[in-house]
Amino acid sequence: MTAGGIRSIGNANPGADAAAGAGMAVTASGAADNAASPGPAKRGPARSHILSVLVENKSGVLARVASLFSRRGFNIYSLAVAPTDNERFSRITVVVDLESAPLEQIMMQLDKLVNVVSIAELAPSDAVQRELLLATLKVDPAVRSQLVELVDIFEGKIVDVGSASLTVMLAGEPEKLDSFENLVKDHGIVDIQRTGRVALQKL
Amino acid sequence: MKLTGAQALIRSLEMEGVEVIFGLPGGAILPVYDPIVESPIRHVLVRHEQGAGHAAEGYAHVTGRPGVAMVTSGPGVTNIVTALADAYMDSIPIVVISGQVATPSIGTDAFQEADTTGITMGVTKHNWLVTDAGEIPRAVAAAFHVATTGRPGPVLVDIPKDVSNASMEWYWPTSEADLDLPGYHPAIEGDPEAVEAAAALIEQAQRPVLYVGGGVLKARGMEELRRLVDLTGIPVTTTLMARSAFPSSHPLNMGMPGMHGTYTAVTAMQKSDLLIALGTRFDDRVTGKVPAFAPDALVIHIDIDPAELGKIRRPDIAIRGDCRVVTMEVREALERRNGGAGDAGGERAHRAGRGDGAAKSRNGGGGSGLPDLSPWIRTIETWRQEHPLHYEPQAPGERLKPQMVIETLAALTPDDTILVTGVGQHQMWASQFWQFEEPHTFVTSGGLGTMGFAVPAAIGAKVGKPGSMVWAVDGDGCFQMTAQELVTANAEGIPVKIAIINNSYLGMVRQWQELFYEERYSEVYLSPDLPDYVKWAEAMGCVGIRVTEPEEVAPAIEKANAIDDRAVVIDFRTDSFEKVYPMVPAGASNDDIMEMPTTSTRDAGRSSERKAS
Ligand SMILES: Cc1ncc(C[n+]2csc(CCOP(=O)(O)OP(=O)(O)O)c2C)c(N)n1
Ligand SMILES: [Mg+2]
User: What is the gyration radius of the CA atoms in chain B, in angstroms?
Assistant: First the structure.
């Protein structure tokens, strides 16, 4: 398996993976992650990785995944889940903290869950990643236009307007949302909600 | 054909070839107990659901077939959680069927409702809540499949009462595709390249050790292990879970590794240049301090569970696969690489054996790339001779030596006797001093270390192998946790035999307090005669025997061996001060193994203890 690329486990080829699971280096792909991450505004651990986990769409599956993470002491930075185009399956996109456990161990333990069908590891450099942010911001009339301009620059949308506040929506790469969040912080954030990232392999 | 969910459940168990269920009924499982009346499946009514779980484990241990337990909702389930956790740690295939409150009541805190799938999630390989009677056959078939394939383990099927009362059209899944397990695909064969690389490492090793775990027994890989040893002459150590996987009498068997392992096994691993880890998981009780464990060794790790490969120690070669199959593949690779099969394997093993092996080169046949291990075997022989397992004989005025009781028991019972243990000092002595000759004759709680395991597990083992004698070596503390199952044994005609190593202490804890807490004994004293074990045994319908004198030990065992119509309990009054040696203190390096102190230091400890107790 190639470091920094996509690797997957699941029904595709379980045997080959395990064999490679031996002297496998998690470090190479971890380093790639570091290189790709921008400076100060970065949220989450220095060494993180994205796992795209295809699971059966059955009740309790999210609990199994979450319970595995907590029981084995693996930290999750973010987790997003939704059904796929095939209603039998859901996709969980989880950003895991590699400081808490080696990636291979996390993937192997996840793969043992009977409801987990396959796992793809997406190195940040090889993945298209997006996240959605909703934020309600305080607006002083004096800076209102400035704020609207900022939302525009970031290609966000104003989705609700109040007398002294605005709700904006912004979708994009997580780092972009980080920068936006940093810039509006000084105006006063009333409420903010981010979805956690979803990702697919680059073509 | 229309059946109720309950009938479909029992029918499904029959389709799976289940011959016995250990269980105890209650409200939510009532509908399922009704068709049991007509079923050919035997039901053993336990006195506590933990007993049902351990009995199912004992049955699975000795037969290799999944054990089945059935319990009601709420407390029935919570009572069996310990057994599920035990089976999970030791990879024992058991299937637990639990009743649940009716589906409309789930989530309302109904009477005897518990979040069964939630509670058991972390201690099962998988569990199912069945909400449609039509899914019962599929769920049962999937449960048995998951429990018994790949790395075996416990599973649970939770059935709400309205589901077992509902009507369904009977069917039976005929293929794996019918089981609806798109994410479950255990691998059997090893990666051929890795197998070849493993063979190459074995050819280069000067000080190899086969570190054999319970996976070998589960995969029924004993014969293949034997053939690999015959071919290579590599010495073997078997973990607690793998006792009986390789004959104790074999000259290359070094005994158990780890915290209470033999000096030879522990030291051989420390000095080894190649560990071949077969179906084992580098448990902390084996490795001691991990960074100091076998520091010079390369590691070949073979396991069916890929998550074990590299979990604790990064292997140089990892092979995911069934232990039996991969052991065979490695041997075949070695044979292929070294001039074909059947190269006088038996002869080679014979030569590598004790005495002989020391004297002759192993590959005198010529053309073989297998290294000459005789210097290594000679070193091991020296350790074995200089550091044998031993204990001081009983002095006048002292109570029985537990090791002597266990050795006598081993000597007076047939080779196919199944030995079951509790958890504590007696368990370690049993593992150290028993002679294991036949596979699947040792049943113990390893990973979880569950006191109270022995009596119910012995019952399950006896049900599974009614033709074998079943002896439990139990602690006085352990016995008090689940002894009531002897009522089950006598009511159901399951004649097990229990040897209580009655040292009147929670002995293992007492040992740690003596060695590591300056002899400050805190809550470990139990009393030798409260309860009166003989009267208690008799009250439960057993024959009860008390043994205080050394000359009574053998006759009491012989008397017990002759009783076959009821359970027997022998209360062996043993020395409270005896400790398990060798010992690697928790967290220490295996290089710091402590052997039994000399008589004089031991007696010093003894007199100060007398004052303390
Ligand atoms: C259910 C449970 N509780 C507590 C322990 C901790 N523990 C381990 S060994 C032991 C003492 C067991 O005493 P006994 O059965 O008399 O055996 P001995 O060590 O004296 O042979 C205890 C309390 C345990 N393993 N299991
Ligand atoms: Mg005791």
Answer: 25
